[in-house]
Write a structure and sequence with these properties.
alpha+beta; about 30% strand; Chorismate lyase; 7 helices; 6-stranded antiparallel β-sheet
Length: about 230
């Protein structure tokens, strides 16, 4: 199933923003509608998503512009870590620790709704300017074994999109844990030091589970911002 039209426009704008400077102008919604052959409402949906993600801002009467780098990711947004790092003016990279096709555990098979109990397991250390930020263990359905041929030092989500599976939304659980010996080795932190641990399940454009992951962030190098409302008494 092809990606929604607004999503394709959004991805094209994300690529443009990655090559732009803060406050550079972006195409107007009518220009985007003409260029991509969509309605202005569809173009507006793509731009609105970028504004919500903090990658762009609207100036009334003037247009839409590339946003200046901001701080940490909001917990209610699904944003690639590589994009977060770029927004902070730093260079993202990844070091692959493990990449293999293996039998799924019962929990992985259940949460990824697997018909054949196999997963593609990819473990990576995520870096910003060569400083380790996170130790990431991610599992994907075994039917996506073509991921093993992709450049895993780059964006796995872009590789998924190239295979026709577009990460769209997800849910996450956040906990605090002490660094294990493996964490200490991969992240360069003392064993027992505080880590922020995020477990995510991400769905694709057809609401199918596509990624089950655990990211273990060095506590002094990363944080999440949370937006919330206050319930009335």
């Amino acid at each position: 199933m092809p990606a929604p039209r607004y999503f394709r426009i959004e991805q094209a704008l994300r690529a443009r923003i990655a090559q732009s400077q803060p406050h550079d102008p972006l195409p107007s919604e009518p220009e985007l509608a003409r260029e991509h052959g969509v309605s202005r409402m569809t173009a507006r949906a793509a731009v609105t998503q970028l504004v919500n993600d903090g990658l762009a801002y609207r100036a009334p009467g003037r247009g839409t512009f590339v946003a200046a780098p901001t701080g940490p990711r909001r917990a209610d947004h699904l944003v690639r870590l590589s994009e977060e790092i770029r927004k902070q003016g730093r260079r993202p990279s990844s070091r692959v620790v493990l990449a293999e096709l293996r039998p799924a555990t019962p929990d992985e098979a259940a949460r990824l709704r697997l018909r054949k109990p196999e997963v593609v397991a990819i473990h990576r250390v995520r870096l910003a300017d060569d400083e380790p930020i996170a130790f990431e263990r991610a599992m994907y359905p075994g039917t996506l074994s073509a991921l093993l041929d992709a450049d895993l030092t780059g964006s796995v989500h872009e590789a998924l999109a190239a295979l026709g599976r577009h990460p769209i939304r997800g849910s996450a659980t956040l906990t605090a844990q002490a660094a294990t010996g493996e964490d200490a080795r991969e992240l360069g932190v003392p064993a027992g030091s505080a880590l922020l641990v995020e477990r995510r399940l991400i769905l694709d454009q057809q609401q199918r589970p596509i990624e089950l992951s655990e990211s273990r962030y060095a506590g002094d190098r990363y944080r999440l911002d949370v937006a919330f409302g206050v319930e009335p008494h």
